[in-house]
Amino acid sequence: MKNEKTAALAAQPVRNKKMGFSWSTYFKRYWTLYLLLLLPITFFIIFRYIPMAYILMAFKKNNIIKPPWQVAWAKNYGFEWFIRAFNDQLFIRALENTVKLNLLDLICGFPAPILMALVLNELAFKRFKRFTQTVLYLPHFLSWIIISSLAVRLLADNDGLINILYKQMTGNKDAVIPFLSQPSWWVGTYIGMGIWKEAGWGTIIYLAALTSISPELYEAAAVDGAGRFRRIWHVTLPGLRPTIITLLIMRLGYILGSEFDRPLAMSNTLVTDVSTVISIYVYQKGINGGGLFSQTTAVGLFQSVVGVLFLFMANFLAKRFGERGIM
Amino acid sequence: MKRILALFLALIMLCAVAVTANAADELVDGKFAETRHITVRLFQRGDNVPEESPWAEYIRQGMLEKYNVEVEFAVGGRWTETDDLGNLLAAGIAPDIIYTYSYSTILTYADMDGIIDLAPYIEQYKDLLPNLFGLLGEDNVYWDKDPDTGKLWALETRLVNNARINTFIRKDWLDKLGMSLPTTKAQFEECLIAFRDNAELLLGADAAKMVPYSTSQDIGWRNNILTVSFVPDDITDEELYIRGYDDRQQFLPGAKEAMRLLNKWYNEGLVWKDFALYGSGDTTEDDNLKAGFVGAFQHNYDYPYRNGDDSISANLKRNVGPDAEFVAVDCFENDAGVYRKYLGSTVDRKVCFPSTNDEILASLLYLDFISSPETILALQTGVEGINHERAENGAYMMKAVDPTDPHYQASLNNIDFTMTCNGQYLGDYTEASFAYGYAPVDPEVVQNAYIVAMNGGRVPAHFSLPAIEAEVGIGTTLSTERDTFLNKAVTASVEDFDAVYDAGVANYMAIGGEAIMLERAEKIQIATGYVFVK
Is A159 close to B274, i.e. CB distance below 8 A? Predict the structure, then answer.
């Protein structure tokens, strides 16, 4: 919609001419803009739209050797693989885990950068603020593989640094905090690591939004006798509201989405009951020797459809609450 | 003039007919008239460049000279072989000759018409493949032939040495504690307890790092001898087959009691606490072994001796002292008092051709070439003076080669190149050379490990049955679930063990284990009349 608006605005001067709207004049004037669009659109066509043809695999017999349009339809009017997936308790487990971990991530992980941005915003020393920001961004640039190795070295039951120190402190050889080996602890570690890695990076967009709040509002609030917390509550947070809503909508669209490298790297055999998410299920059942390509495509399709539904729902709710939404 | 022209034309036609009509059509004097080109899968381990090694060169030259076939190696990681195979087949760029350890992976792709049925070609070209048949034997060649459909998707290559798993223990520690080598389960447990209780004496400042018994998340393999020692000795071949889809033997009667013992050890602090946290291929456990923190473990029968100067054995001596040594012991007796081990059969990796292969004869000739005794000898023993020296009795004494040297063999016995042969195969010198294959490890130690590994060995029987449909596409899922529940059961508290273990088995059976068992039972009943009772 946004694009249409800009296009309409751009077309304004052309329409004002005597002849009415003329495509040739329009293109003569704006062809460079379309030229700029060409490359990204080609990218999307090749890497996003053409592969969509292979969604057909979800409805066909399991075969990745032949292109899906040459393969016979699967049983049950093509829905065989969806039925099988929903009868597979491993898939149900993966679905549950995905929703649980994503909800926890949303509840704990979503407010973290907001809080952090508020704190950073209040820092008076410019240099200290910049230094802190940089330190907070750094973990974002480490891959999950590195972070998971760090986690094992630090948190393992027997050889992990923290548990070694803990054992020495308590003087009890068997005292162990099972960060990685007990499902409930593991979930905490997983969420915590996620916040540590991404919260700092997430502050960027909020800090940018903060710069657009007029200082006059703060001054006015101060004149009216608002203290620091009152100013945060009545000026800063309302200023951030559109950004928060936009990001929340995008996060909700991702509720069934699942990262791949994070759970893969962080998981171990003791916690698969809580750590196997849909992406891992797809990996194991599909390319990692499982060979069930149609079923995993079906699962992926299901994931995307639910994601889109959530996105529309969140957008609708946002509009109901008087925000602009993203669509 | 006309007559000469006619004669000339007739000659050309004759030649053309001769070239196209012959059964082994393209071969002239056993050689292709035109140079052919094939691509061959080659595993890579670590950071070596296998396609530039002298072994690759040997094969390329040999094939070109003997058959006029150009060989190109398609290199891929050893530890991602199944993933890679799928991707290559899907993209239609699989090498002409591929191989894998997983037959169910081959079945999966055969179902998609991605694999060539070799049966007709083997019949047609049998006479041209004397070395292949010589090495593999009819048994291995037709091992996977479906008795109903006659289809043959893969050739089972030869496992020369079928020793499988051993129990290793630190003899120097036992000496230090005044204990003798254990000969029963009870004695073995006493050894572990003694290691735990004397950590200070054995490891000094590193006492906290003591691991009396080490294992990995692959519980089934790494405690296989323990498992098998609880299986009744009189279990029948049919029973072994029906319940034996899992190659770790974890679903045979008695396996649960074995895991119960391991669980008890774990809770008594005898087992490495962190084993479940590290995935396959992780080196943390090996590092512990090399550093000398570990008292005992079960693994491949020659595991501590592999990799020359970087072997566990060599590192242990460097880090701890010349006396430090892991020796193989027999101490897991079963109900008949036998140190039972289930050995590998005669089959190893499975070679197949993808449907994109249009050089079937050239590919079969490649297999014949690398199956010839001379080729295997050359690839396994390498260059005299660099890879080996000859003993007086003619035995090949292998030398440790620096990993940066191009003559370094990244896999034991160079099996990455001898695709059809796993294990030393040196003709008359095989037996005499075996123990020398692990320089710088003392040949006597190696010989002992081999004898122990074979003692009480039983080779599970092979039944020629139609393909078991329930096995297709489920292998990885089942083995992952097996590892998961065994890890949980072993690390559970003693009171929870039964609940965790039983739930794990029930889940394994529900997601496909039982279907395989029942289908195997059904097909074996048709073939032999054996009646299976669940």
Answer: yes
Residue listed under structure tokens 């972070």: A147
Is there a contact between B491 and A65 if contact means CB atoms under 8 Å apart?
A: no
Taking one residue from A and the other from B, the number of pairs with CB-CB distance under 8 angstroms is 97
- Residue range B264-317, pLDDT digits in tens: 999 999 999 999 988 877 889 999 999 999 999 999 999 999 888 889 999 999
Q: Which of B113, B148, B66, B143 is nearest to B351 (CA)?
A: B143
| DSSP code at position B53 | S
For CA atoms B18, B20, B21, B24, give the dihedral sign. positive
Are residues A181 and A219 part of one domain?
Answer: yes
Chain A hits for B269, Cβ within 8 Å: 174
Residues A36 and A76 in one domain: no
Verify that A26 and A129 share a domain, yes or no.
no
**In chain A, whose CA is at the least distance from the CA of B482?**
A269
Same domain, B185 and B214: yes
For every residue of A245-313, DSSP letters joined together read HHHHHHHHTTTT---SHHHHHH--GGGHHHH--HHHHHHHHTTTTT--HHHHHHHHHHHHHHHHHHHHH
In a domain, B400, yes or no: yes
pLDDT tens, A203-252?
999 999 988 888 898 889 889 888 888 888 888 899 898 889 888 888 88
Minimum distance, in Å, between the CA of residue B494 and any CA atom of chain A: 16
Contact (CB<8Å) B511/A90 = yes
